[in-house]
Amino acid sequence: MEKEANGWALFPLLIFLLLFIGSGVLTGDFYKMPIIVALIITAAITLAMNRKKPFMDKVDVFTKGAGHPNIMLMAFIFLLAGAFAYTAKGMGAVDSTVNMALSVLPQNLLMVGLFIIACFISLSMGTSTGTIVALAPIGVSIADETGISLALAMATIIGGSMFGDNLSVISDTTIAAVRTQGTKMVDKFRTNFLIVLPAAILTAVILGAVTIGQQSAVDASSYQVVKIIPYVAVLLAALSGMNVLIVLSGGIALAGVIGILDGSYTFYSLINAVSEGVGSMTELAMIAIIIGGIVEVIRSNGGIEFILQLVMKKARTKKGAQFGMASLVSLTNLSTANNTIAIIIAGPLAKNIAQEYKVDPRKSASILDLFSCFVQGMIPYGAQMLAASGLSGISPISIMGYSIYPVLIGICGVLAIAFNLPRLREEKE
Would the pTM of this model clear 0.85, i.e. be above it? Predict the structure, then answer.
């Protein structure tokens, strides 16, 4: 049974944006309003709406969304990520990795190298969040040692992570896009890759240009190869397509063993490092859970259906239909803060639009995945921004200003639709 469209159901999202972003703009300090407090207020307003439903029924809907398997998995990944970050840092893995990078790469190419590594890991792992939590500690150390903006370093990692999230054959978003549009994985990959490749190349060029004058005071010889093993192991595990939970758990164990063997840890100091790492991410896990509950209530009240119907009215031509799909998944992503869920929601309707206006399913799948990743890489309340913010200790708003790659893939997506690129074989014939 379809829910009745209700634009009023989106009101809590407006309140959240006013509380979190508005207070930062007015005061000049985005830490004045903690995001979790803004979300708790938003959740209260969400539950107070739609008085036709009994309060406990709305609470049931909220808890269903908050406890969704995808949300719980995300929260657990955050906790493991914190444990891995602290454990690796405590035994010297981060410092050694950074110093090795500084000894290999020219100083003005450190951000370029970080972006390429993030692209490579995310393409292999199929998860943007997993890539961010693995690389954020390295990005923090590089920023500290070179004077490069920490916000730029975090945005660089987020950009590279969204590259793989958008393209990886084991990414949830790619799988959802392919399945909802009825096309083949390899065909979607080729089409999507041709659209975003210019964005990746231009991002690398821009990063090289904006960091060309940065200098480092690091002694490039002061690193131990053995301490880099945890990150190498994580990379190899990612290449094998191993589950991110296993990757992070293995990284924690390996960093702990090496730390004990070289004297960096005792058994109890290792346990404390793991505990501190988990504790550092508990707020982030709670944020993900609360967002999941809010989104589910908004969906139940007809907010998502309102977005779907609004976009449907705008499709008139084949090109307009493609822009409609892009708007559909973008608005849904803004409302759900989860690109996989956005594609799953928007996918069936996008397929109907594609069939009606004869849009190739390879393109419709690419549009859904590309624009959902564009939005997900930009919103300050998305898992990617929150993970980078939590691990670096800076506001997600400050990171947004350096979101080079997400902006460029959005531009490339618009140009691809406007100029019918790439021209697929069947379309040429």
Answer: no
